[in-house]
## 1
Amino acid sequence: MVKETVARATESAAVDEIAIDGFDHVEFYVGNALQACYYYHNGFGFDIVGYRGLETGSRDKVSYVLKQGNVNIILTGALSAKDEVAEHVHKHGDGVRTIGFRVRDTETAYETAIKRGAKSFSKPAQQEDEYGQMVTASVHTYGDTIHTFVQRAGYSKENFAPGFKPLEKKSKGVGLAAIDHVVGNVEVERMEHWVDFYKQVFGFYVYQYFDADDISTQYSALISKVMANKTGTIKLPINEPAIGIRKSQIQEYLDYYLAPGVQHIAIATKDIISTVDALHKRGIEFLTVPRAYYDALPERVGQIDEDIEELAKLGILVDRESDGYLLQIFTKPVEDRPTLFFEVIQRKGAHGFGKGNFKALFESIEREQANRGNL
């Protein structure tokens, strides 16, 4: 059953927490950065604010930086078949390579992580240009995913990073404000390994735990633990498949991504109805649930501010907790392979992850799996 952390002291890690202010960015490795940029610019309403490529002196890769609210996305493609980006895309398809953490001291964060057993990807390096200085370093985590520590105190907000040039290609945003959480999928019986990794390396704690009884249908199930820092600026749920009659959504992901990796990125908005309505009009496709879900909603969640008919029209889910309620919706996969998707979430006092919606959501995902012949 779900277990919420009531007293953080009882779940606190045995080591001091690495100080992280929040998510800095998420970087995707993609087969065609220019076309992916067009999709996120026109579909999700991101501004294009930075570019790195042949024109800036980058001979091996090209990247576009997109921004909306406090959400930064980097889309990186290869300029050579032998580049690591090309190899990553060949194996996994388009997917998340880097989860960036904003820190005040990259060197301390990196050295602490390495001392505690993290595997280095890149050592602390100071980069500078006319906009100032930035310090970054990276460590490995599940699969081919890495975490990058980003120290921006000495760098201007006029540019994303050294090596990039600023762009100003505006889009009419849809109200996406900040990354709420980033979810990773790992293999069977590997969730606890990565839970311990985040406890012992980062000093995070288990914020919530969901077992197979919480997230299951008659066909499939999964197990999940949410890792978080004490300020709540970082939340990293970790999922693993559970034994079921048929293939779970986690196993389908692993079969196509061919490794553990990021399953979905949840982005917060202050007005989910207007955000989702705008995304629908831009052609973004979402999972749907049966009408019966909304007929039962008043009894299950009680009084809410939103009109239920409007929520039903858009397919937005609602769940209530002791401190309030949340509204959420999930896109269909945004890549060719049935791997990565997005969540749009609005919190109205609730701090959890929509446990009351798990069954309806899981059944919706299973319907999509069945359409793909993968259930």
Note: The chain has two domains: 22-169, 176-372.
## 2
Amino acid sequence: MLSLEVPQFSSNRDLGHNSRILVVEDEDIIRDMVVLALEEEGYEVVSVSDGRSAIELLQSESSSQNSGFDLLLLDLMLPQINGLDICRLLRYQNNIIPILILSAKASETDRVLGLEVGADDYLTKPFSMRELVARCRALIRRQGFSTQTAAPMRRFRDITLNIQECRVLVRGEEINLSPKEFRLLELFMSYPKRVWSREQLIEQIWGPDFLGDTKTVDVHIRWLREKLELDPSQPEYLITVRGFGYRFG
């Protein structure tokens, strides 16, 4: 069953200072305990119980003077609009908010599907609040690190990556990338020809707190190829180095 203890971490709660999290969960007890655990860590938390309310709230935030949300916790089985459709819509609109899916669907197929439609991480129910908070902290920290340390522009052959605007042009046309796809491409373009193992990519992009498996990397590489390559089956940019990992160019 769901672990309901509120975690008491020894780390500084300033990690959560000013970070805003939207929780979308239709089960009252889970939603209430998630909100409590995150607020105990210093996060500002807003919660809704259905998909339509989540979309309306996200759209109103983006069109207002508010700073928006730093993280979205998203159940899949929601009334009105399900979580997968919310992910698809946000990524189609080029919204790069980090998304952590919370779902009772635990199969590999379900996890891969969630990542493919744009989620950054996937946590299966039942889960402990301690693990949930750790994953939230990791996603927010990685997002903040990428924003603060990025140089303004990367170029390689027909690809231009504008870090400040979170835009990518491929052969003169803009493409939409998920946050993890964007950060992977930025890393590859920063070190062309370097070979990266799956473990190194997990460390650089997902961070040391990531609790998933390396298949996540393969999913994101495949989706990047479909958006970058003229022929994804014969890639010119994202090259597989068998037995080692991947390189760019």
Note: Residues 1-17, 145-151 have pLDDT under 50 and may be disordered.
